[in-house]
Amino acid sequence: MRSILAGVLLASSLIAATPKKPKLIVTIVIDQFRYDYLTRFRSEYTGGIERLLTRGAVFTDARYIHFPTVTAVGHSTILTGATPSVSGIVGNDWFDRDEGKPVTSVADGATLLLGGVKPVLTGSSPRRLLVDTIGDEIKMADGGQAKVIGVSLKDRAAILPAGHMANAAYWFDNPSGNFVSSTYYLHDLPDWVKEFNASRRGDKYCGAAWLTHKMPATPKELYGNSIVSPFTTSPFANEVLEEFAERVLSAEALGTHDTTDVLTVSFSANDLVGHTYGTYSTEMHDITVRTDRLLGKLMAAAERQAGPNNTLIVLTGDHGVAPSAEEAKRNHMPGGRMAAGVLRAAVQNALTERFGEGAWISGLYEVAIYLNRDLITQKKLDPAEVDRVAAEALSRLPHIARVYTREQLAGGGVVNDEIGRRVENGYNLRRGADLEVLPDPYWVVGDITASHFTPYSYDNHVPVIFYGPGIAAGVYHQPIAVNDIAATLAVILSVETPAGSIGRALTEMFAQ
């Protein structure tokens, strides 16, 4: 009887410790945000990051437990709690064998882009995401009353955290200089979005100076035609994004309903600056400190909107980043740069020599190689033997740590260590590549200044901070996975955990 009573009392204390349901959850993702950016620039933070570090629950050992560590995969993990093996988001891009063509993580030919320049363009959606998000669970639990909206400069970063049932996702379209959406969510852009776009917020940065850089004089030159432009590789893009996020809060009255609303905001310019200038560059330093101030503005706006003690803030990054090969060399670190074509050439040459002429590669994305299965079938070859020959050729290349074949990943033939488990977590049997290649630490593939995709610490170690009512401020050193965010929110909100979630609830931070 005594043990039963003790169990009841323990259960009661756990229930009492669960934070109250917030009226608004704001999930903030800083693209390409290593954990050490919190500590390296700590003395310069005076805004939102400062507030989170001093008044939030700060987890110092939060990591992604999958490979590859890229934008789409990270954003698909945060509010689903799933790994790519289940979520189906195996990269930013992959070769879709069902469709017989390359696809992006959010490509959807059944939708149209809203707000872009004519002619009418294809839109994007979360349909390739095989699991649901916390936002989806909230909406299913309350009959669709909650509002869930995602915003970012990148389409995948706006769409994947928000989920299938989101009211909208908005991202920046460089050719038009507008925030756009797709017909998956809406028949037309809301009037408030059209008004925001008509104000041309970004145009004011034409000719503006940033550090030693000067922005182009005209909007056409400023925005360019792709996500990488003078505008998006500067902190000015984050400033416009933050203004847009504040407009979402007010126009959609988020945090004022009888249920919990969700806003996801992903600051993509940090990633584009990091890729362009490097991990230890003055530019990366500057945009990080500026982002701290923007987070302060956004958090204040969210709390004004929802009222005192009604907002829960979650901050994380979607992946880290390696130093550039040049930075590593200056610091006498291991690492270097290998040409992007080296992997392709090694596979193509080996398979041609062994099995004859043909276009042996259907797609190569980062270090994921998809072989031409139609050619393999046509030549009546054993796919496993073809994979093995290609893997052996790749393994002979300098600075290649491991090569995994489809057969190894599907059949459990992977070394059972942390690296192997992360690669397995990232492998989806239907969408995964035939070959996954892992370079040695600090080796960059291609000519991009700084890169990320590996399972090494510099790419998987990111901040996770919770801040809001019922969250005990402090520093928590126990290891956690970014997948734990979704499970924790499910407990706080008393909803089902998303279908693919493998995380645990971080109850140690619940105020007693």
Question: How does this structure look, described?
Answer:
By secondary structure, the chain is of the alpha/beta class. Strands 1, 2, 5, 6, 7, 8, 9, 12, 13, 20, 21 and 22 form a twelve-stranded mixed β-sheet that branches. The protein has a four-stranded antiparallel β-sheet with strand order 15-16-18-17. Helix 11 packs antiparallel against helix 12. It starts with a helix and ends in a 19-residue tail after the last helix.
Which spans of ≥5 residues are poorly predicted at pLDDT below 50? 5-14
Q: Regarding CATH, which class of the largest domain?
A: Alpha Beta
Question: How confident overall, as mean pLDDT?
Answer: 95
Strand content: 15-25%
Characterize the largest beta sheet: strand count, sense, and whether it forms a barrel.
Answer: 12 strands, mixed
Task: From the structure above, extract its key features.
512 residues; alpha/beta; Alkaline Phosphatase, subunit A; 12-stranded mixed sheet; 4-stranded antiparallel sheet
Describe the secondary-structure layout.
Blueprint: H1 2-17, E1 24-30, H2 36-40, H3 48-55, E2 57-63, H4 71-78, H5 84-87, E3 93-96, E4 101-104, E5 107-114, E6 122-124, H6 134-141, E7 148-152, H7 155-162, E8 168-173, E9 178-182, H8 191-198, E10 209-210, E11 213-214, H9 219-223, H10 235-251, E12 261-267, H11 269-277, H12 282-306, E13 311-317, H13 325-330, E14 336-338, H14 341-355, E15 361-365, E16 368-371, H15 373-378, H16 383-395, E17 400-405, H17 406-411, H18 418-425, E18 435-439, E19 443-445, H19 457-460, E20 461-467, E21 474-476, E22 480-481, H20 484-493
Parallel strand pairs: 1-12, 1-13, 2-21, 2-22, 7-8, 7-12, 14-19
Antiparallel strand pairs: 2-20, 3-4, 5-6, 5-9, 8-9, 10-11, 13-20, 15-16, 16-18, 17-18
